[in-house]
Design a protein that fits this description.
The protein has 653 residues and is an all-alpha fold. The protein folds into 4 domains: 124 residues, no CATH class; 146 residues, Cytochrome Bc1 Complex, Chain D, domain 2 (Orthogonal Bundle), CATH 1.10.760; 91 residues, Four Helix Bundle (Hemerythrin (Met), subunit A), CATH 1.20.120; 261 residues. 74% of the residues lie in helices and 1% in strands. It contains 26 helices and 2 strands. The protein has a two-stranded antiparallel ribbon with strand order 1-2. Helix 19 crosses helix 25 and helix 21 packs parallel to helix 26. The longest helix is centred in the last third of the chain and has 36 residues. The radius of gyration is 31 Å and the shape is elongated.
Length: 653
């Protein structure tokens, strides 16, 4: 009977969805993906009821397995033209799965193949089955008492006042065998569409969040509050909670497997499962990504009410205070997802700021929500010591090398101009920046997360100031194309500026450039520690390794620089300074866009973070202005050299 009910539910879902709502091509594609995923979920969970040890034990169930997989192939053929879909091997993998079923392969083989294909399909199309925000626990209990208890019973045992006259009987939500295979997603689908041939009607008239609240409530009915209280300590002691998307998709058997992977087994696992089902799903609102999803939803509501300013504020806060704190760790796992999410956020802001139609803004909201849900899955649990180590090493190496390059260039500049005494101002600048970074670290320990917009605004201003000073420094280098004249010109300029002004120029250049890197290091390392609170040792080790590699780079570069001719070093230094100015300009404008200070107008093109290259009109125009300034300086230097040469020739004649 249980198998018949499950098959009836799935069959109804497939038939009910055969003509999906089509407000757009993307919605139709997602609906087809959902239908295929539902079939694969059914096969993974119920194949064991049809085949055992290579023999069919339920002929009707077995025939349904083959029929549904054939239906999945038909739906997949409508999903995309062969070779052009996000998962072009979908049909071949469905055929292989169907052949395994027809060959009466083992339950382990078929279930694993179906689950893997389902996961890959959902990932490829960016579809996640989960509520956008944690469901309201009290509302789920209220709705169950009003709508469900009359059939399923007050405690969910399937023994309500009207249960006696129903055929088939209502589901017993307290039966362990039944509930091991029932996830909130399956319960949500049943609530949305009803189950044909039973007394279970559709509750599609209920708001989506209320249906989710009811779905989560029924899967928790068989677990006792006392067990949940005992299980909380076991789960929290071993790491972070599963994300809401995982809790929605997983049945009890899946969650027991997850708990085993966390080292929780036996009676302790039973209690921990009770906690995950009765409590955890309702207490995820303080997580950064969950905050981001809540704020994005708030922005959608504000925009619908005509409050564009509030909508913009909510989206900016969602990105800066919800997504950016986990960006460093996510970059170590799925860097492409970081770029997709940032772009989706900026497009959403662009739509709100530009007064786009509500339907378009809603579509962009859903795109952001899907990406945030994918990020939750990618960041599931603690980042782990290995990921934390790699992330910290990468951050320190990148920022350390940038700082080393600039300091070497400045030291080379003062050494080649014969003003070696000014090197102490360069050293004072970078030492002061490191000290300021250390102070910022201790402040951050007490106050992070910093105000998101203020953080990005400060980073953007620092980057642009550093770019301006770099461009000014490049003037010294490119103003003379002849090595001797360039050295003399720089010496004269610095001497004419006076000791105080010259020292201030060198100090500010070293300080601002290095402090910007220290600022990013503090933010990113704090982000890693927020996401992986037990990975402090790995973060420290990764940071030390990154700094060590940067130091080796410094020593090699200094040794190489001493063997270079002054003219070659100055030319290379000038070009690198100009390149850094272009990079910092792109990063600075990007930070101001993220802070909401300036807008973002998108154009086609690649995104290269380490070059500060972002495909928006604002960043590209700013970088073009810097490049134009560099070219103008070079042309001016050529003109000066030509005039000087002509003057020297005339004097000689």
């Amino acid at each position: 009977m249980k198998a018949t009910l499950r098959a009836s539910l799935l069959l109804f879902l497939v038939v009910a969805c055969s003509t999906p709502p089509t407000p757009g091509a993307d919605d139709a594609a997602r609906e087809r993906v959902r239908r295929i995923a539902a079939i694969l979920d059914y096969v993974a969970g119920d194949y064991a009821l049809a085949v055992r040890d290579g023999e069919v034990i339920d002929e009707a169930e077995y025939e349904e397995q083959s029929a549904f997989l054939t239906e999945a192939r038909r739906i997949g053929g409508e999903l995309a033209e062969p070779g052009k879909g996000a998962l072009p091997e979908l049909d071949a993998r469905l055929v292989a799965l169907l052949e395994s079923v027809e060959a009466k392969a083992s339950v382990e083989e078929v279930s694993a193949s179906a689950r893997t294909l389902r996961r890959d399909l959902l990932s490829a199309y960016g579809v996640v089955f989960a509520p956008a925000t944690p469901p309201p626990a009290d509302r789920g209990a209220e709705l169950y008492a009003q709508l469900c208890a009359v059939c399923h019973g007050a405690q969910g045992a399937g023994n309500g006042p009207q249960a006696a006259g129903l055929e088939p009987p209502p589901t017993n939500f307290r039966d362990e065998e039944t509930m091991l295979g029932l996830s909130p997603v399956r319960a949500f689908n049943a609530l949305t569409d009803g189950i044909e041939g039973t007394a279970m009607i559709s509750y599609q008239h209920l708001p989506v969040q209320e249906r989710w609240a009811l779905a989560f409530h029924v899967v928790g009915l068989r677990h006792e509050p006392d067990a949940a209280a005992r299980g909380e300590a076991a789960v929290r002691r071993r790491g972070n909670l599963p994300p809401l998307a995982r809790l929605a998709e997983a049945n009890d058997e899946d969650l027991l497997g997850w708990l085993k992977g966390q080292g929780i087994e036996g009676e302790e696992a039973v209690d921990a499962l009770a906690f995950l089902r009765r409590v955890a799903a309702y207490e995820l609102g303080d997580r950064p990504l969950q905050q981001a999803k809540d704020l994005v939803r708030r922005a959608e509501l504000a925009y619908a009410e005509g409050d564009r300013s509030a909508a913009l504020d909510a989206v900016i806060a969602a990105y800066l205070d919800g997504f950016e704190p986990v960006e460093a760790v996510l970059s170590a796992r799925e860097p492409a997802l970081v770029g997709e999410t940032e772009t989706a956020f900026l497009r959403l802001r662009e739509g709100i700021a530009g007064g786009a139609p509500a339907s378009e803004v809603n579509a962009r909201v859903e795109a952001v929500q899907r990406l945030l849900a994918r990020a939750e899955i990618a960041l599931e649990g603690s980042a782990g010591n290995q990921v934390a180590f790699v992330a910290a090493l990468t951050i320190l190496l990148r920022e350390g090398v940038e700082s080393v390059l600039l300091i070497l260039l400045l030291l080379g500049l003062v050494r080649r101009t014969g003003l070696a005494r000014d090197a102490r101002m360069v050293h004072a600048g970078w030492i002061g920046a490191v000290a300021a970074g250390a102070v910022l670290w201790f402040v951050a320990q007490a106050s992070l997360p910093l105000a998101g917009a203020s953080r990005e605004l400060l980073e953007g201003v620092i980057a642009l100031l550093a770019a301006a000073v770099l461009l000014y420094a490049s003037h010294f280098v490119l103003a003379r194309l002849d090595a001797k004249r360039r050295v003399e010109a720089m010496r004269r300029r610095l001497e004419a500026a006076g000791a105080a002004r010259r020292g201030a120029i060198l100090f500010s250049l070293a300080f601002m450039a290095v402090f910007r890197e220290a600022f990013e290091v503090v933010l990113f390392l704090q982000a890693i520690l927020i996401e992986s609170p037990n990975a402090g040792g790995a973060v420290l080790a990764g940071s030390a390794a990154g700094l060590g590699i940067a130091l080796i780079f410094f020593l090699l570069l200094r040794a190489t620089g001493r063997r270079l001719k002054p003219g070659l070093l100055l030319t290379a230094s000038g070009l690198l300074l100009c390149g850094l100015a272009v990079v910092l300009t792109g990063k600075g404008v990007r930070a101001l866009q993220e802070a909401g200070v300036i807008g973002a107008t998108w154009v086609g093109g690649p995104r290269v973070d380490w070059l500060g290259l972002y495909p928006s009109v604002e960043t590209l125009v700013a970088q073009f202005v810097v490049v134009a300034a560099v070219v103008a300086i070079a042309l001016w230097g050529t003109r000066v050299k030509k005039a000087s040469t002509e003057s020297a020739s005339g004097a000689a004649g």
